[in-house]
Amino acid sequence: MPSNGKHPSVHLTTDSKDYLTVLPPELLHNICDHLLPNHDPQVALHSTPSTTSIAQPHALDHLSATCRSLRAEVQSWAHHFLRAHARITRYKELKTPKLQAKRNLLRGKGGLLTWAAKHCIFCGKSSNRSAILVSGLKCCAKCDKAQWPDKITKTAAKTTYDLKDHQLLGQAHSSAIHPQGSPPLPALRYGTYITSNVPTTMFLEPDVRARAQLIHGDLALHASRRAAAAAERQRKKAVKDQAAAAKERAWAAENTPFALAEREGRSKDEAIKMLGDLIAKSGLLPEEIMEAPGIESIKMALEMRNAGGPPRDGMQLEDMKAEGLVVVEGPGVDCECDWL
Ligand SMILES: [Zn+2]
Fold first, then answer.
1. Given this model, what pLDDT does residue 216 score?
2. Which InterPro entries does UniProt cross-reference here (predicted)?
3. pTM
4. I want to staple 174 with a disulfide (CB 3.0 to 4.6 A). Which of 99, 122, 165, 275 is the partner?
5. C-alpha of residue 206 to centroid of ligand 1, in Å
6. 177: domain range?
């Protein structure tokens, strides 16, 4: 690439293979700019020290440790950065050029990474908080909000935009089976942080909206279809619930009329009336009804009449069933009685 617009500084086919150190300083500085903000999106999900820790080597440490030439370039870049942002880094030159020359501007006292490990990268205030979307840099909550104003939690992204985990985080982060035939989607940019002891995943809302449009098409139309489907589900459920309640009540009216009357806040007289209705429906004569009041007496009388007299000695329930005699059981069980 031409360094001054006249001659290329690197002949890739003929020069030595050490292409890095022969790059012009501005390109090396550009590389350093890109290395400074590192990011581990899952930083809140594992317990190992984050890359923001000063005990953890930074990519710039590795580059600086490569050789004297690159160390000098990294120092030069750090010097430039500290001076250019002196308003927040509070950078000052040391008293003598000799002292200044010995200074480690990356990791020494007042060095860039030393400073960045304890200060918000945007406003320079002391901060121990990592930026959510660039976990390698410190960032106060105020600056985080100002720099990335449209953050959205994963839960909100899923419910608001009707998206699944794998549609936000890619297949690698999801146990869900990807629909066959559709191309796998790459993960969106995201970050994690701990709030109230729970790891929370955040995305940028414009990214999520764009992903939802890609998957659902017109979002307003998709939302109205979803609402209509939800209303239809609700309606079907209400009809089903109503039918189940009616069936249960009908069973209770025939089998536990006193308990039903009590449950519905009605008098015992009404329960007795219900029994009367049942007797009338069954066609039994008053003398056929057992002496004890209640539904069991009616059932017993009906069973006896259907069996042509009182149950024979030793006749078991199964025998009665086998002979097609009436057996009344709980709700949901089909009854052979014509009065039930
Ligand atoms: Zn700040």
1. 92
2. XPA_sf
3. 0.62
4. 165
5. 23
6. 151-217
Residues 232 and 318 in one domain: yes
Dist. CA 165 → ligand 1 center (Å):
31
Are residues 233 and 205 part of one domain? no
Using only C-alpha atoms, what is the Rg of the chain? 40
User: What is the Å distance from ligand 1's center to 3 Cα?
Assistant: 37
* Tens-digit pLDDT profile for residues 272-318: 787 787 778 777 777 777 666 567 777 777 777 777 755 444 445 55
Whole-number Cα distances in Å, 161 to 20, 32, 45, 148, 183? 45, 38, 24, 20, 20
Structural domains counted in the chain: 3
pLDDT at 327: 46
Let me know if residue 163 belongs to a domain.
yes
Helix (H) or strand (E) holding 236: helix 219-255
Distance from Cα 77 to the centre of ligand 1, integer Å: 23
Q: 89 C-alpha to center of ligand 1: Å?
A: 12
CA 135 to centroid of ligand 1, rounded, Å: 14
The answer to whether position 5 is within a domain reads no
Measured in angstroms, how far is the CA atom of residue 122 from the centroid of ligand 1? Answer: 5
Between the CA of 42 and the centroid of ligand 1 the distance, in Å, is 22
141-158 tens-digit pLDDT = 999 999 999 999 999 999
Tell me if 136 is assigned to some domain. Answer: no
Q: What confidence tier does 182 reach under pLDDT thresholds 50, 70, 90?
A: low
